[in-house]
Amino acid sequence: MKLLIVDDAKLIHFLVKKILTANEITDIEFQDAFDGNEAIKIAKEFEPDLVLLDVVMPNRDGIATLKFLKAENPEINVIMVSSLGTEDKVAQALKLGASAFIQKPFDEDELCAHVKKSFKG
Amino acid sequence: MAIKFFGHYLLDEGKLTNEQLTEVVEFQSKNNLSLGEIAIREKLLTKKQANLINDKQRSLDKRFGEVAISLELLDELQIEKLLTTQRAEKLFFGDVLILKKMITQEVLTKELTLFEAQQKLDVVELEDIISTIDKENIFKDAISVLQTIYSRVVHDYIKLVKVEKAISTTQGILAMQKMRGDIHLDFAFQPVDPVALAISSKYLKMDFESVDEMVVDIISEFVNVVLGNIAVKFSEGSVKVDLTPPVLIEANKFDTADFYSFDFVTTQGELRVYLKI
User: What pLDDT digit, counting tens, does each position of B39-63 carry?
Assistant: First the structure.
């Protein structure tokens, strides 16, 4: 399984990998992107099964990135992971095709449940 | 005007020395057992089971009892008994002062009465200041969200002790983020190093001994989480806002003009938040 983590905070990349490994969700090939533009570039070549996408990022924010990723590949599975879970952002993300919106700070079980569900799907 | 712990009040009043204060806090921390420790002592749980509950409790942000019941390691009656034992055995600050003969019962009663009266006055004064500088409760909501997120992430006590027009910065990492849209709010966060380390250790569930690049990254992300959740609270009132990514600022280059500083105390040390509408 291929997982692309898109967040400008390095610690989120570290934390997600740590949580998934500790919960025995293994056999994952990870790729990191630290802004929207980088995510779009990497997604083209990496072809991830799941993208964990932050909203507040430099260069291109998560909502604009989601729009682009979905336009390029409508089947791409994207879960938004952000602190900015305002009603309008969540509604916008879901309308654009995100499969879920996880509000930071997230707990381990919530993240693992979403990742497992995505990989099974 | 400042709200303090009872221990700090006694220190300022000259009734206690710094060494005595440390001795009392350490004694409390060593002797006031957690529910898990009492359960092990009472042979209701093994150490391994108690650790499992503690780990789950931290990641799920739930009470010890709730997790123990959901894992079917303890039942409700056992939890109730453990809580009763914990309450009965708990040593309060004043109890330790008496036990260690640092103060007499008579002086303790008198000082507690004076301290409580002073604290009530201070709370009213702080609320008055905040409502004077912020008619729309933006600061009040921001502070409330910060306290909730801090308690949830660090599992620690946090209390607002001072509000004033910002004059100068203190030492430590200073991370700042801006909210734009229907509400304009600038939010800068400056914890002392022990608080920054406590946030980092709890965030990643690993020990940090000094402020390194990862700690700085965690503090930036913590600010992002706090401001995001403040935005969520505002959005309940149909307010639409966006956030800029957090940035780090050198404390001596931070322009405090038009900012208010909010000082908090935690058991790890102080932290300061600068807010500007």
Answer: 999 999 999 999 888 877 766 666 8
